[in-house]
Amino acid sequence: MAPIAGIATSGLRAGALGMQAAAHNLANLATPDAARQKVVLSAGPTGGVSAAMVEAPPDPAAPLEDVAATLTCKAMAGANVFVLKVADQTLGGLLDVSA
Known about the structure:
By secondary structure, the chain is of the alpha+beta class. It has two helices and two strands; from the N terminus they run H-E-E-H.
């Protein structure tokens, strides 16, 4: 896999994990003992991003933050899908030229 595709794929996975955490939090708003979740991002060892889901402390403003996180993760995923699409088109163009 080309480095750019690996980086974009890791970003796409991070965005999906963020959406999963936000959806979990919003779905469990009425559940008194439900633990909140959040995603911690860090730089990957070979480029890209590493994402891990951890327990988050209770927060009264959490529903608003979860909705904002959903929008942010959607934009992140869309940007990474665009990068993968362009990388695929570029690779296809290079293969056509060299053939």
